[in-house]
Write a structure and sequence with these properties.
This protein has about 260 residues and is an alpha/beta fold. It has helices at about 5, 80-85, 125-140, 165-170, 200-210, 225-235; strands at about 10-20, 25-30, 40-45, 50-60, 70-75, 90-95, 115-120, 145-155, 175-180, 195, 215-220, 245-250. The longest helix has 15 residues, at about 125-140.
Length: about 260
């Protein structure tokens, strides 16, 4: 069996920023070389008196960055997020040395268009895609003739986390279109942007952008209800199952099987 030292790093929190109560980001010094592809996830853990509690989190940062960035939402009844929420700069967590996941950008199908759908922290892997692509674009090493269309939903605008970064990037580059949408505008009366859940506006924007299953890969990340409904809408609009990728962030207890 491999020892703990062979499997884990002791990663240290170097920065913490809270966007709203229970929604925050951290930067980690991984404690060693950490290789990953944009869209993959890291496995973090906190040691309790009984056991090591671990969960997977999509990586926000680009592989080009020196520190790991994560976007986390507090699940009050969860095993790990309350422990993570209590940690501050200087505290350590365990980090498995190997990144995993296949929720990566599709550069093999030849599809020009990429429709990215997310809820709240589900935007994390897309930020990693975009930061990576932006550096490649600046370095004149852009991988293909592609365009990314991002719809990111939250209940209220202060839950977006990366709205300013995404808005600025979309204004700089010709290959990104960004639409944030708020599903509870009655609780956010200052919001002047799009309203509705992701699944409420998919038809509107796929029509507006002329996205079809023939030239578009769809990505769904975050709330499982959004993924289920969004995937159904895209399938009915002619998207092939093989052209849809999903990353579910939590499973409602009633859907769990024994």
């Amino acid at each position: 069996m491999r020892s703990a030292e062979e499997k884990f790093y002791r990663a240290r929190i170097t920065h913490r920023d809270e966007f709203s109560p229970g929604l925050w980001k951290i930067l980690l010094d991984t404690g060693g070389e950490y290789k990953f592809v944009a869209g993959q996830f890291a496995t973090l853990g906190v040691q309790t008196s009984q056991k090591l509690v671990e969960r997977a989190y999509s990586i926000v940062s680009s592989p080009y960055e020196h520190q790991m960035e994560l976007f986390i939402e507090l699940v009050p009844a969860g095993e790990l997020t309350p422990l993570l929420h209590a940690l501050q700069v200087g505290d350590e967590v365990s980090l498995r040395k190997i990144a995993k996941g296949r929720f990566t950008l599709d550069l093999k199908s030849g599809h020009k268009n990429h429709l990215l759908l997310s809820t709240v922290t589900g935007v994390a892997p897309y930020i990693s895609y975009l930061r990576t692509l932006y550096k490649d674009w600046i370095d004149k090493n852009f991988p293909a003739d592609i365009h990314l269309y991002l719809i990111n939903a939250a209940s209220r605008s202060w839950e977006f986390g990366y709205h300013q970064e995404l808005d600025q990037l979309a204004s700089k580059v010709p290959w990104l279109t960004y639409v944030p949408t708020v599903s509870r505008p009655y609780e956010d009366t200052a919001w002047r942007g799009e309203t509705g859940r992701v699944e409420d506006i998919i038809r509107k924007y796929t029509d507006l952008w002329k996205l079809t299953g023939a030239d578009t890969t769809g990505y769904l990340c975050g709330n499982p209800q959004m993924i289920e409904h969004g995937k159904g809408i895209l399938l009915r609009r002619g998207f092939d199952k093989l052209s849809l990728r999903e990353e579910v962030y939590w499973i409602p207890p009633k859907t769990l099987r024994r």
